Amino acid sequence: MSTVYLNSFKQISVQKPLSEDWINNPQNFENQKLVRTQDPDFKSLLPANVCRRNGNILKRAMIVSNFALKESGLESVEAVVVGSGLGCVENTELFLQELVYEGEEFMKPSYFMASTHNTISSTIGINLGCHGYNSTYCHKGVSFENALLDVFLQIQMNRIKSAFVGGFDEMSPTYFNILQNAGYLVGDSKGFAGEASAGGILSNMLTDNTLCKVAAVRLGFMLNDDELLDLLDVTLTDAGLQKSDISAVMTGINGKPSSDAIYHKNLELFGIQAPTLGYAHLFGESYSGSVYGFYASAVSLHQNKIPQVLFLDKEVENQSVQNPKNILIYHHFNNKDHSFIILQRC
Amino acid sequence: MDELILKLKREIIETLNLDDMKPEDIKDDEPLFGDGLGLDSIDALELIVLMEKNYGIKLRDASEGKKIFASVKVMADYIKDNR
Description:
A: 346 residues, Peroxisomal Thiolase, Chain A, domain 1, B: 83 residues
């Protein structure tokens, strides 16, 4: 079986885009409920006809994949796999609104073409000149994890040597209002809704730019406590590790009391004596938001230091863990879908 | 006729999201595709919808579009003769 390396990873988010500025200068979104992406200057990064025709999520996807491929040192990839809970939801809304407005007589071709979930990975494929395997996982809060698992297994089994993998989601005001009317993102929730546009290159090649090794990826559905512990054990075994080898646990703790309570309960169940980290207070919550937990963990391993801003317990000073070796990423979605990922320093 | 050409230019800019352009940037006789405005086949689809939606003209033959979308002036002439 091949070892899987993460050769690069790039983000466009509510933080400064295409940058690790969030480590030292994180933007604070306290008391905000919806924060939209800070986009880079599209016109300076993409051809004019690409800019005018594509929705923002597609422009972000192209830029992220361009930068990720460039930084990876690879010339091309053999596959493109992304996770997206909502796909190109803004274009979908425009397309549907126009259909309604025009009495279902006319539709704008560009909106229609860019309104499917799979438009994101296909656009990235065209953009990177990758005509190989191309897939999109649309599994709400575990979309990115499913995409990652697919690529991880295919590289491990030598079916492919390299791939772009990412998580992409928009949070349109319309969709946000629907969520609020349905009772989500309101009440005592302290987190905020964000968007996701991040991805990177996984391959079986260790390069000068490699961020870390992806040592294990496991997903589970509807697990009781024993099954969840079994899944953790299998994940650790996959990576050849013990609980004591884990330097920190990255979680999706996001300020939503009902979801956070499950994290706290399960973290206690796991019995791992390591600091708890989070990313949602920096990047917001979206279906593919967990892509930032993966990204932040990878950056921490590459920089040999977990930045203070990722620690959730703000009362302890100077928490930065120097020389982290293994970061366990644990995520749950509605306490039904559970995922474990282990990233390892190279 | 001039009014129709100006209206068409505004509609083309809006439909194709040519944000940086103004009607006066598009010359009446300038080719819309290729070397001129640089539009492509997806833009042609948008223009076909525009013709039907705004002027009630249905283009059934794809090869017709190549001639009709030669320039804004040719488009305007075609609309005038066919609506």
